[in-house]
Amino acid sequence: MSPLLNFRIWKEIARSYRNISSFRWLLLGVLVGLFSGVLAVAFFAAVEYGKFFFLHKLAGVTLPAPAGEEIFHGPAGQLRTWVIPVCTMTVGLITGWLVNKFIPETVSGGTDGTDATIKCFHQGGGKMRPLIPIIKGITSIFTIATGGSAGREGPITQMGAGMGSWIAIKLNLSAKERRILLLAGAAGGLGAIFRAPLGGALTAVEVIYREDFESEAILPSVLSSVVSYSIFTMFYGSEPIFGIPRFVFHDPREMIFYIILAFACTFAGWMYIRTFRFIKYSIFSKIKDRLGLMWATGIGGLMMGLMGMLFPQVLSGGYGWLEMAMMGEIPILMMLAIIMGKTVATSMTIGSGMSGGMFAPALFVGGMTGGIVGQVANRFYPDIATQPGGYVLVGMAAFFAGVAKAPIGPLIMVCELTQGYGLLAPLMLASALCIVLGRNFSLYEHQVDNKFESPAHIEDSTINILEQLQVENYFKPGRVTTLEEGTTLIALRDIIANTNELYFPVKNEKGTITGILTIQNVRNHLFNQDLFDLILAKDLATKPATLMKDDDLYTALLKFVDTDYGQIPVVSEDDHNNIIGLLNRENVFRAYAKAIKELQED
User: Fold this and answer.
1) Which DSSP category does 129 fall into?
2) 66 and 42 share a domain?
3) Residues 286 and 211 reside in one and the same domain
4) Edge to edge, what strands does the sheet with 503-507 contain?
5) Which candidate, 27, 301, 387, 460, has a CA 20 to 30 Å from the CA of 583?
6) For residue 10, is pLDDT > 70?
7) What is its main location (predicted)?
C-alpha cells in the first residue's frame, strides 16, 4: 500500500470519527490529562523541595513525611524556628500584593482553589484567566513550603482546571464543553497529586453539587485523571502516599463505633467550617476593609508562622502526622490538640487570603477525629476494634464527604490509598451518615444543590420545561392563507393587502408544502412594476417548516431558531400537507414564562 493511499485512509477514518462524541471526548480527555500530569509533576516537586529548603534547611525543623512522599533527603539545618513566621509573613504580603494587583476578582473566589473552580463552572462559563492559576499556583507553593497550613489538592485542582479551560478556549469550544474540560483538568490534577485516579475523577465531578454530579464530564475526567496519574507515577512511582498495613473490617459489631465516628466527624466538620467562617469574615475581612488585602494576608501569615513555630504539628499539609496516627503512634490528647490547632491554623492561612487548599487540612482533621474514636474503641473493646488505625482512614473520607457533600470520590480515594476494599462497608456507612447529619452546612461556598440550581444548566432547565408543553395547547387553529408556487408578484401584492398574516406556506401543483414566504422577502420587490409578472412565489419562498399537534414546544423552539420565522404552520397528523393552524413564536415565549412563574409560586 502506498504512503499516499495510507494517509488518505487514516484521514477518512479521522473524519468519520470527528462527530462521534465519545471519541472526541476521549481525545480531549487525554490531551487535558497530559498537560495536567506535567503540571502536577512540577507542582509536587516544587512544594516538596520548598518544604525541604525553608523548613528543613533554613528553620531546622524536621517534620514526619509519609512513606510515599519523602523525595528529598539531607541533614537538617541549625534550629531557627523564628525563620518560619518571617517566611510565612513575607509570603502573605507578596501574595496579597500579587492578588490585589493582577487578579483582584479572585478575592471573592470562595473557600480555596477548588471553590474557585466550582464558581468558574457555575458562574464563569468555564472561562478561567490563565493568570489566575499561574499566580495561585506559585503563591500556593510558597505558602505550603514555608509552613502555611494548606493543602496541595486545592491549588492543583485550580491549576488543572485552568489548563482545561485554556485548551477549550484555544480549540474554540462551546461554553458547555469548556465546563466539561474545566472539570477534566481538575480531575487530572487531583487524581495525580493524590495518586488516586478514579477517586480524583469522581470527586471532581461531584464536588460542584451538594445533591448531584456532572455525569457528562465523567468520561473525559476519568481519562484525564488516568493519563495524569500515569505521568505522575513515571516520576514518583506508583506507591500510595501512606505506608500502612492493610486494614480489614471483619466484625459487624464494629459498625456501632463507625456510627459514633460519623457523629464525631459531623461535629468536627461543623466546628471546622464555623471556625473558618468566623476567622475569615469576622476578623480578616475587617482587616482587609481597613488596611487592604496585602496587610490582611501578611498578618495571617505572621499569625500562622508564630503558631507553627510553637506547635509544628500544624505546619503544611501534615500527611506525615496522619500516617503516624494510622500506626497508633500519637496519643489521644495530642490528636485532640492537633484537631483544634489545625482548624485554627488553616482558618488563619486560607481565611486571610493566602493561597492553598482546604482539601488536605479537611482530611487531616477528619483523620485525627477518626483516630480518637478508634483508640477509645480499642481501649475499651480491643476484641472488636482491633485496628484503630482504620478509623483514621474512614474518618478522612467521612469527614470530607460530610463537609464537601461528595460521597463517592473520597470513599474511592481511601480504597485506592489502602489498595483494597477491606473498609468499604464502614466507609459507606460513615460517609452516608455524615452527609445526612451535615446537610445544613458546606465547606464550599459556591456549591449549588443540583443542576437546576446552576446557571450552567439554564439551557437544560429550559429544555425540560418546554418538553412538557405540547403544540396543540398553544397554536391558533383555523384557515391559513396558502400560496401556489406559480403565484405572481402582482397577485401577491393583492393577497398581502387583504390579510394580516405575515408568513405564507407555499405549495406546488401536487399540494406539497415546498416553502414559506415571508413579508420581508416580498418587501424589496413590491414597487418594482417591471417584475410583477416575472417573480413567482416559489422564487421568494424559503425552506419549509411545519409542526404537528403532538410536538413539544422545545421542538418548536428549535425550528423557530433554525428558520427565524415568526409563525410556523401546524399540519394534520394524517396528512402532513393539510394545514390546520399556525403557531406564533410569541406563544412559545409566553408559555415558557407562564411555566416558570408557576414553578416559582410552587
Assistant:
1) -
2) yes
3) no
4) 483-484, 503-507, 513-518
5) 460
6) no
7) membrane
